[in-house]
Amino acid sequence: MNTVEPSLPPLREVIAKHGLSASKALGQNFLFDEQLLDRIAAIPGALEGQQVLEVGPGPGGLTRALLRAGAQVTAIEMDRRCLPPLAELEEIFPGKLRVIEGDAMKIAPATLFEGAYHIVANLPYNVGTALFTGWLSGEEWPPQWRSLTLMFQEEVARRIVAEPGTSAYGRLAILAQWRSRAKLAMKVHRSAFTPPPKVMSAIVQITPAEAPQGVSMRVLERVTEAAFGQRRKMLRQSLKGVPGGLDTLETLGIDPQRRAETLSVDEFVSIGRVLS
Ligand SMILES: C[S@@+](CC[C@H](N)C(=O)[O-])C[C@H]1O[C@@H](n2cnc3c(N)ncnc32)[C@H](O)[C@@H]1O
């Protein structure tokens, strides 16, 4: 890792110099603690020479940590006010940072890279879950990305890594776990952010695993949508509207009196396989 980088001003100075008052509408909560940022940048593993997509670099705190780790960073930022501080970072790390002004919701990462890349982001909360589900929903598997390291509100992070039988377990857990490994990598206290959000945050790390054979994403989504759409109801009620749903439970020997949250990810995959 490059531990010494030329004359990087403290992030608080960067914010002051460029008048970057945090915009609530853009979900801006900035991280200034460089040690914390370095620890976040270390979660994906060695990044030396690796391509990284960062969504929402803001004034560039996480960006500089990724650059220090030796990554080749592409950053998508919507707020034009953040472009000058990011341009300064480009000068300090020549050829290592590409900044794209735009809405990450409208840019397919695959169009930005040849070959593998990692995604690392302190996500804007208003679009975080939508971006995340988009990255996990592609038909192509393994995807072009090698890992996702993403900051969420802790409650959302817990839903992503949730286990069956818990109230947090639902569609997000199944989406994140049926062909990936998902783990809670770090909790981040609200006081680490400026301004501090109302709730705690946590970082999840996702790495692709082997996709189970014979199951389509679309069918699995239909089943989990129906099952968790009425999560308090028994499966015999909630899966009524899914053609072949009740027969599939019988075929697989799954008790129709069970509720969605008691089914393991593998059981959902088995249902999806029969219906696919
Ligand atoms: C929570 S802040 C994180 C800032 C910085 N990475 C940090 O950790 O201090 C989220 C950032 O995402 C940007 N942003 C919000 N919506 C976006 C979108 N749709 N596409 C790209 N960037 C977006 C915001 O302007 C903001 O800079």
UniProtKB/TrEMBL annotation:
Give the species this sequence originates from: Novosphingobium endophyticum
- Its top-level enzyme class, in one word, is transferase
Q: What is this protein called?
A: Ribosomal RNA small subunit methyltransferase A
Function, as annotated: Specifically dimethylates two adjacent adenosines (A1518 and A1519) in the loop of a conserved hairpin near the 3'-end of 16S rRNA in the 30S particle. May play a critical role in biogenesis of 30S subunits.
Ranges where the Ribosomal RNA adenine methylase transferase N-terminal domain occurs: 36-210
Residues binding S-adenosyl-L-methionine, per UniProt: N29, L31, G56, E77, D103, N122
From which domain of life does this come?
Bacteria
Please write the reaction equations for the catalytic activity of this protein: adenosine(1518)/adenosine(1519) in 16S rRNA + 4 S-adenosyl-L-methionine = N(6)-dimethyladenosine(1518)/N(6)-dimethyladenosine(1519) in 16S rRNA + 4 S-adenosyl-L-homocysteine + 4 H(+)
Q: Which GO terms describe its cellular component?
A: cytosol
SMART domains documented for this protein: rADc
Which keywords belong to this entry?
Cytoplasm, Methyltransferase, RNA-binding, rRNA processing, S-adenosyl-L-methionine, Transferase
| Compartments where located | Cytoplasm
Q: EC number(s) on record?
A: 2.1.1.182
Matching entries from SUPFAM superfamilies are given as: S-adenosyl-L-methionine-dependent methyltransferases
